[in-house]
Structure formats: structure tokens, C-alpha cells
Amino acid sequence: MVFVRKTLALRSMPSLAKRWQDAKQTAFPCLFPLGYFYVLVKSKKGEEMNYIERAIETSMRHVCISAPSDPAARGLVRENAVIAITGAFSVSSKTVIQRHLDLNRESVNKLINRLKKKGVISVHPTFANTDRSFITLTSFGIREAELLLNRELNLRSDVSRVNERNLIHDLSVQLIVLKLAKAKKISGFATERDLAIQLEHRGNDPRLVDALVVDANTGSKIAIEMEASNSKNKNNGDIRRRILTKYLEELESNDGLYEFVHMYSHRQRFLTQIEKAHTRIFDSRSSPFSSSQQRLLLDSIKFKSSECSLIYELMFNSKRQLSDENGAATNKMNYIEQLAELEKLAKNTQDRVIEIRLNGFRDAGKALGILE
DNA sequence: CTGCTTTGTATGCAGGGTCC
DNA sequence: GGACCCTGCATACAAAGCAG
Hints:
This protein is α/β, with parallel strands linked by helices and 372 residues long. The chain is built from 16 helices and seven strands. Among the domains are: 164 residues, Arc Repressor Mutant, subunit A; 43 residues. It has a five-stranded mixed β-sheet with strand order 3-4-5-6-7, with helices on both faces. A two-stranded antiparallel sheet has the order 1-2. α5 crosses α8, α6 packs across α7 and α11 crosses α13. The relative contact order is 0.08. The N terminus is likely disordered. The protein binds a DNA duplex (20 and 20 nucleotides) through α5 and α7.
């Protein structure tokens, strides 16, 4: 705790922080790590705790914030949220931060610039997302994140490790996880990175999913899967069968990594394609799954189509306006939220009248250029 | 190509809060 | 009261988009 306070003070004085950073790199390379070394990965009871559990336990602390009324304190809390998010996911973007902290574009720019000035994060231009840039932590920022999250992060500050081809996918996962966190639907989460760090085969471990969240009410673990392309649905469904087998292994196991799988995408079409592929596999005479296994898979895999438009709008729509003029952009968000509600209602009630209303609402969206 | 508009970001300022 | 930094607003500016 003492250390956290100290670094916060340091961070609010850029020149001092800079000097501290320089000193760290030259004169005392071994001094600073002592700060977080004493909080070694152990639980309160003292027994060894695995990395994923540790991540789940600590993940929400700085990510889920209630903004204090004191502007200065609020600024620091927000800065910490940015550091915690970027630390946990290894990259982030202005759009994700903006959405999570409920800020306007101007305020995010100021927040990010402030952190940049303090030497905590760096912003890299790219063509791979709608922001045209992504955020990573500097080596100084990584230390800050490790202090905040109270665990080792195994992060590197060099940008060449960021795979720009996965950027939108990764940011979409963040969007969903953070939305769940903010809505208090989950009590903790572990990112794909966290899983990879603990699992033996690292990068290509078959048990890897895009994120792991813990349901706030039931405490059950849920795997989050994000389908950003439909490449896996082409061919003969062999890939889907392998993926199902992978899920089944965890679902059937008593100490599996997760009990449910939630599928997300920016396109409703991709989700229905996956659902269809599943039924095809189950229906085929040579189906590798017993009927009880099929039931388990059907019950455990849920398709979250209500988030499609949100993900599309924030991550994929290159025509989206970044500056919010309190007009088009917010109207659009309102429309999309209303649409999602209506879709949910139509699905739950199966009411013909609501379905007609939904179709009308969709048509209106198309006429206004919000939907395609 | 030019000149105009739009878009995204940066900066300075006023007015406002909390905490020591 | 001063340190600190929030917010919104006005303004400036560069880059991109676009019609002619």
C-alpha cells in the first residue's frame, strides 16, 4: 500500500517521475522490483494460488470504478483504470477507454495525453482499427500496472509484439468484458494472456479462449469467444467439431476451466452460421458426440447476438464519427440500444406484434442509414 | 491540380470542486 | 487560501475528403 501511494505521488509530478525512471534504468536496476516482489503470487490463506485465479481475484479492483466527486481524485482513478485495463489486456484503445469510462472524445484525448506525458503509456499509430491508434504501456507503465493489479504481468513494452491483425478482435473482447464488468454482471475476469501464461503450451494451448469471466450471481466460470471473421465456418465443419471437442473437455471435467461458453461477434450472421454448423454436426450419423454430450453442449454454449451491433458500431464501422456532436453519434447509440432491447423482447416473448414492431424499427434504422 | 469543407486533435481559458 | 485538476467551451491547426 505504501508503495502504491508513493508511485501515485510520483506520477503526478512528471519531472520527478522522469528522473525516477532514468535512475531506475541506470543506477538502480534492481531497486524498484522490490516494491512489488513482496506481494508474491500467494493467497491470503498462504497456499499457492494459480495465475488465473489470481487474475480473476485482482482484475476488477481498478477497472470497475465509481468516480469520486473530487476532480483530482477522479483523474487519478481514471488513470489507474486505463493502466489496469491496458496492463491486463496488454493493448487497448481510446474507443474502449471512452466507452468504459463514459467520457467524451475530448476528455479521453486529454486523459491519454496526460498519461503519455507522464511516461506511463505510449500511443502507436496503426491502420488496424477505427481509432487509427492503439495504446500500450511503457516499461514504467508496466511496473505501475503490476503494482495496481498486484501480480506479475510478463509484459514487454516493445510494440513489435502487438499483432495488428488481431487488434480489432482483441479490442472487441475488451469491449464485452468491460461492459459486463461495468454492469456488475461478473465478479472477475482473466484475459487470454492470463490463461496463456498459466497453461503449459502457451500460445497454442487448445484450452485457450478469448477471455474467462466469473458470473457475479452464480459464481460459475464462463468462457468468452469472439468471432471476428467467419473463416472457421467455411470448409466442412471439421474445425467446428474440433472446437466443440475442446469445449466438451472443459465442460465435462470437474475442474475444467469453464462451465459455459458465450459466443460473441460483430455479425449476427456469423453466430447463426456457427449455430447451424453445430446442429449439422449433431445431426450427422457419424456424430462424435453422444446425446448427453450434445445436450451438455447445447445447454452450455450461448450465442450473444444482442451485442453484435455494439461491436460492429464501435470496432468495425470505419465511417463512425469519433467526435461526438451530441447528435448523430449518440442518437445512433440510443437507437442501437433500443434495437437490442426490442430484439431481446421479441426473442423472449415470440410475440408476433413485437416482431412486426421490430421489423419496422429495423426498416427505420436502414432509412436513417444506421443499419445497412 | 486548387480551394473549400469536414474531421480529429491540441491548447488555453474560465468556472468549478476537494483536500491539506 | 493555495495546490491540484476536473469540465466545457472557444479556438487553432493539420490531415483527409471532395467537387470542380
